[in-house]
Design a protein that fits this description.
alpha/beta; 14 helices; binds uridine-diphosphate-N-acetylglucosamine; 4-stranded mixed sheet; UDP-n-acetylglucosamine1-carboxyvinyl-transferase, Chain
Length: 422
């Protein structure tokens, strides 16, 4: 039974909204708890379905997990299991983050290959190559990555062809327990990586170069449990910032860190928004129709690929023409056809899109294909004349806790409905 969102466009969003912990961080922190036996507590945990999937995975690996309001406590056994099954990995790609910790801690792991998804092919070759450089044996067999290092991992100089977030995380969480020193050059610099480094340091790891593209990890013999607060979700915060700019609204985003969103907020300013910092976050106000903004997605500190759908939606109704270039995931323009159903004027050529802003979009049924595309379509629905139905809204729920409630609080006309109810 599927659900959808019914949006009646036209409201100007105004008020305050709070941002909880980052999905892209908390799942990785949870996987990294496997590195130390005992009870680790993680706070600022968002209320999203993927956290439950990670709990299922950790439970299958022998952990005891307690989830309370905004926190999880994970009790890791001395001898955790070593297999992440396909049924969970296919539901949530972050499952692959157990690979590094398991190989490092117990010397073996079998993790299902997640396959491609709606935003494009997402390789794991850097993960495997890196583990082999650290002395593991690793190969693909029957749809699984089978890795082993019965005598432990050995520090090495690693270089990533592309600053992949997932590969940096898996190699970092493997290297913390390796013998000797590991360097990861061309490492990802996303705030999520810094958060993971701080978490690992809290467990007793020795890591230098946080936030830079050269991480140096001095392996230690063992790690211990810790207590950590997840960093705020910059993509959720950024989504609200775009919602304010598109609806000519005024939103104070409490808990959002403007410093993690420098480029997106600069782009919104050039679109005409007024961005100011507040005591616990920042505020975005817009008084006129936005100007078009040219954007190229790139690894952090470049423009995040996860906010690209919001940029497309904003440009759809902006004054002028924009070029948007997607450099991270080749499939991320798939949802453009849905925006076109709302009346957007977009031409895609390879990984470039040209958008000629129109005065007004018109509501229609559209399909969410992934979390961020879904959120981008909701923003477009907010500024469309009439009713927009965003089908398969479960995608959006994976990344945006209490999205409908927050939208309503800010003045939007949105309801969630079961498709067989109507
Ligand atoms: C990416 C984003 C991250 C975002 C997340 C969820 C970047 C750099 N990363 O992280 O910010 O939160 O999606 O949408 O924007 N690749 C390989 N081989 C590998 C690993 C990666 O070829 O072994 C390629 C991928 O196919 C992709 C690119 O590198 O084109 C980035 O991948 P990666 O950063 O690993 O993706 P995520 O960790 O999912």
């Amino acid at each position: 039974m599927s659900e959808r969102l019914r949006i009646v466009g036209g409201a100007r969003l105004h008020g305050e909204v709070s941002v909880s912990g980052a999905k892209n961080s908390v799942l990785k922190l949870m996987a990294a708890t496997l590195l130390a036996p005992g009870k680790t507590r993680i706070g600022n945990v968002p209320d999203i379905a993927d956290v439950s999937i990670m709990i299922d995975l950790l439970t299958r690996l022998g952990c005891t997990v307690e989830r309370g309001s905004g926190f999880v406590e994970i009790d890791v056994p001395k001898e955790p299991g070593h297999r992440a099954d396909y049924d969970l990995v296919r539901k949530m790609r972050a499952s692959i983050n157990v690979l590094g910790p398991l190989v490092a801690r117990i010397g073996r792991a079998e993790v299902a290959l997640p396959g491609g998804d709606a935003i494009g092919s997402r390789g794991l070759d850097f993960h495997i190559k890196g583990l082999i450089s650290l002395g593991a044996e690793a190969h693909n067999e029957h749809g699984y990555i089978i890795a082993s290092a019965p005598d432990g991992l050995i520090g090495a100089e690693l270089f990533l062809d592309f600053p992949s977030v997932g590969a940096t995380e898996n190699l970092l969480t493997a290297a913390v327990l390796a013998k000797g020193t590991t360097t990861i050059d061309n490492a990802a610099r996303e705030p999520d990586i810094v958060d993971l480094c701080q978490f690992l340091i809290g467990m007793g790891a020795k890591i230098e170069g946080l936030g830079t593209s050269l991480l140096t990890i001095h392996g230690v013999d063992e790690l211990h449990p810790t207590d950590h607060e997840t960093l705020p979700d910059r993509i959720v915060a950024g989504t609200w910032a775009f919602a304010a700019a598109m609806t000519k609204g005024d939103i104070t985003i409490t808990g959002g860190r403007a410093s993690d969103l420098e480029l997106p907020l600069e782009k919104l300013t050039s679109a005409g928004a007024i961005v100011t910092s507040t005591e616990n976050g920042f505020r975005v106000r817009m008084d006129s129709r936005p100007h078009s903004i040219d954007v190229s997605t790139l690894p952090y500190p470049g423009f995040p690929t996860d906010l690209q759908p919001m940029v497309m939606s904003l440009n759809s109704i902006a004054d002028g023409t924009a070029i948007v270039t997607e450099n991270v995931f080749e499939g991320r323009f798939m949802f453009v056809n849905e925006l076109v159903r709302l009346g957007a004027n977009i031409n895609v050529d390879g990984h470039h899109a040209a958008i000629l802003g129109v005065e007004q979009l018109s509501g229609a049924p559209v399909q969410a294909t992934d979390i961020r595309a879904g959120a981008g379509l909701v923003l477009a629905g907010l500024v469309s004349e009439g009713t927009t139905l965003v089908e398969d809204s479960f995608h959006i729920d994976r990344g945006y806790p209490h999205f409908v409630e927050d939208l309503c609080k800010l003045g939007a006309d949105v309801i969630r409905e079961r498709v067989d109810d109507v």
